[in-house]
Design a protein that fits this description.
Layout (H helix, E strand, L loop, with lengths): L17 E4 L3 H11 L5 E5 L10 E3 L7 E3 L6 H5 L15 E2 L3 E6 L5 E4 L3 H7 L4 H13 L1 H8 L10 H11 L3 H5 L9 H10 L11 H14 L4 E2 L4 H13 L3 E4 L14 E4 L3 H8 L5 H8 L6 E11 L7 H4 L1 E6 L3 H12 L9 E4 L13 E11 L15 H15 L7 E7 L1 H7 L15 H5 L16 E3 L13 H15 L1
Helix pairs in contact: 1-10, 1-18, 3-4, 4-9, 5-6, 5-9, 6-9, 8-9, 8-14, 11-12
Length: 502
């Protein structure tokens, strides 16, 4: 495809109906929503290429090998109520499904496995299987309805009130409560498999709403799978940009917007930025009280610390099922997971952290270069930079964090270190430098608190609208939150359409 062009001057004043700041999945989804309605849209991106968390980069040591920068596995991408309406396959996006969606290895050499097939998953969980069916089965069966209800503002009249009532109330429960509903209790495989998904919330597993994160992820696995994009996550943004260009839109890279006054004149403005960043960009245009409210937005207490590994011959997992899985959650039993997440949220680096692993070549063999394949692994570590962090807090010890991640990998895959031929570390500070929306390495867009579940980022049926007329937020700090689904951008653009059609 023809890549977006970099230029140092902005489009002429009055050229666009809408201007979007930020070319991550949400910014591009907002632009596509408006462009499909016939409006002229310009997207401005500070980085040298679009994509945000869906960028892919070349391995510095192994020619031809590529790693995904942030997002690697896409249950919400393939399951997004909006992205599924886009013909992105015509623009080169191909999903590849692993044989096993997700594996959770245990110390006895087995692994709890999430299969697309619900019955196969239930059978593999043994005594915990019936509880899994009761918990996840109804959500998987009505996943499209549930996704439509939950992947947007919560203060609205739901299209499927019974589905939302059953699953929505359950979703508010802490994962620690849900873990006790399995026959074998929190120490069993069912609780471990569920806890690994709930830990995607980047919050203590005692926090309200963590059940909802695990439930929606596992239901997505049964309904749509946990695929990767063939060739890397960059295929997602490339397809979205190509479609936008066909609709007459434009993406301009290398433009760092520091003030609303720098934007080309347009009827509406949508910003794929964090609330604090929007307050800075808006400056004196915002009343002090509105700016202060935006700056009080709470970011997750933990951050991502990632290793990109080049591994010869793949990871030698002890569990055979783990070798067939595209995604793995490492951390042992549910109580171990809970202790790890509590430690990182409290500012302590866990000795045995929760580690999320992607081995994309299991689903997409084109990612291998000879015998070498990419392996992506990140842990939750204390967030030591950004709003809410005490001044002078020392950064995470890189050597300790790297050693803790490799230790968890070796715990379930002895001999892995001997197969590693290259490693690249991405610290929380590096995440934030590469993408300012990842404040202090927070990959969630904001802490999972009860208030921020409902008021994301403000309590309103249209939480995307700001105090400035015609100006909207569309980042992961808006409803429904993090994930490569484009729903934040789509909903914000739907709100902006009212201005364009007025």
């Amino acid at each position: 495809m023809r890549l977006p062009r970099r230029r140092t001057t902005l489009p002429p004043l009055g050229e666009a109906d809408a201007v979007v700041v930020g070319a991550g999945p949400n910014g591009l989804a907002a632009a596509l929503t408006l462009a499909r309605e016939g409006f002229r849209v310009v997207v401005l991106e500070a980085a040298d290429e679009p994509g945000g968390g869906t960028r892919t980069y070349a391995d510095p040591d192994v020619p031809g090998l590529v790693h995904d920068h942030c997002a690697a596995v896409h249950p919400f991408g393939i399951g997004s109520p909006y992205l599924r309406t886009l013909p992105l396959d015509r623009y080169g996006l191909v999903w590849a499904q692993p044989e096993v969606a997700c594996a959770h290895p245990l110390d006895d050499g087995t692994a709890a496995l999430l299969h697309r097939d619900l019955d196969e998953t239930v059978a593999g969980l043994g005594a915990d299987g019936p509880a899994w069916r009761r918990l996840v089965g109804p959500a998987a069966a009505r996943f499209d309805d549930l996704a439509g209800a939950l992947m947007g503002p919560l203060l609205r009249v739901p299209r499927h009130p019974l589905t939302l009532a059953r699953n929505g109330l359950l979703s508010l429960a802490p994962a620690s409560w849900t873990a006790r509903t399995f026959a074998l209790g929190p120490d069993g495989p069912g609780a471990a498999l569920f806890g690994g998904a709930a830990a995607h919330a980047v919050a203590p597993l005692t926090a309200p709403g963590t059940t909802g994160v695990g439930l929606l992820l596992m239901a997505a696995g049964h309904a749509r799978g946990w695929p990767v994009a063939v060739g890397g996550s960059r295929a997602i943004w490339r397809a979205m940009v190509a479609m936008l260009e066909d609709l007459g839109g434009e993406v301009v890279t290398g433009v760092h917007v520091r003030s609303l006054a720098e934007l080309p004149r347009a009827r509406v403005r949508l910003l794929d930025v964090a609330p604090g960043a929007f307050a800075d960009i808006a400056g004196d245009a915002l009343r002090p009280r509105a700016a202060a409210r935006l700056r009080r937005w709470r970011h997750a207490p933990a951050a991502a610390f990632k290793l990109d590994l080049a591994v010869r011959g793949g990871v030698p997992w002890t569990s055979e099922g783990a070798r067939r899985a595209g995604t793995l959650h490492l951390g042992g039993t549910f109580p171990e997971l809970a202790a790890s997440e509590a430690a990182s949220a409290a500012g302590r680096l866990p000795e045995r952290p929760y580690v999320l692993v992607s081995q994309p070549a299991v689903a997409d063999p084109t990612r291998r270069v000879g015998e070498v394949e990419p392996v992506w692994a990140y842990a939750h570590v204390p967030r030591t930079e950004g709003p809410g962090v005490a001044p002078g807090t020392p950064p995470v010890d890189e050597a300790a964090a790297r050693g803790a991640i490799l230790g968890q990998l070796e715990r379930f895959a002895p001999g892995l270190r001997d197969r590693i031929v290259g490693v690249r570390t991405t610290t929380p500070a590096r995440f934030a430098a590469d993408d300012p929306n990842l404040v202090g390495g927070d990959i969630t867009g904001g802490a999972l608190t009860l208030r921020q579940l409902v008021a994301r980022p403000r309590l309103s049926p249209v939480p995307y609208a700001t105090a400035l007329p015609g100006t909207y937020l569309c980042s992961a700090s808006t409803a429904p939150g993090a994930g490569v689904h484009g729903m934040c951008g789509h909903h914000a653009a739907r709100a902006a359409l009212r201005d364009l059609l007025a």
